[in-house]
Amino acid sequence: MTTRPERPADAAAQGATLIASDLDRTLIYSTAALALRVPDAEAPRLLCVEVYDSKPLSYMTETAAALLEDLAATTLFVPTTTRTREQYHRIHLPGPPPRFAICANGGHLLVDGVSDEDWQRRVRARLADECAALAEIRAHLQRAADPAWLLKERVAEDYFAYLVVERPLLPEGWVKELAEWAEGRGWTVSLQGRKIYVVPKPLTKSAAMREVVRRSGATLTLAAGDSLLDADLLLAVDRAWRPGHGELADEGWQAPHLTALAETGVMAGEEITRNFALAAARNRA
Length: 285
Prior knowledge:
This protein is an alpha/beta fold. The protein is built from 9 helices and 15 strands.
């Protein structure tokens, strides 16, 4: 892939609000993660934003979709995800395609849909200097995982590894032991649903977000996320939100500028977009 020439920020983005939001279980939800706790008659209308293998996969409420479409027109909205580029491109959010997107937990900075090669080189140089090699991590995972509960072992964009597991069969304490082993090698572990992510510590969403701030000139930064892999991003912005579910909620994770929402599931996604909209409106005023 070629490197896109860096261009000045759009007039609408210059000095404006930048929103860097996690996607899965923050803004968008699979059927299993919807967690609707309302009577059927009061259930919100949903919009499908991802189809995979000809089947609907991810949703947000129509209210959240309308708010997000307005945000895409009035702020610099940056999808920020651990998904690979291929997985990210399956998602079709309301509004125009985002100018910037962050994939592979910060390993790829997409500019107009294309990965910035200079950013890739900088990331890979930092990983080579600051943490153990991916091959060592994979070898350990393959030795330590039990076929009785392991469904898949995968590598994402040659940056990190993850396991898909039968969560009820996962031995108590196994993830903690893995996290302690990975810590000494400069890697971190995150358990999200049926997936166990093992990610280099230098590979962060916050570093990629700061690069977008540098290029865009945005003056107010907002973020939302639900997992430990989002913590660095939430700490790096002016205001942040987390839903009432996920790793951060389970640990009671807090920060002075963070709002911990009570809502869970897809309704948390709606509340997050509503808070984004309110904060962006205040910044414009």
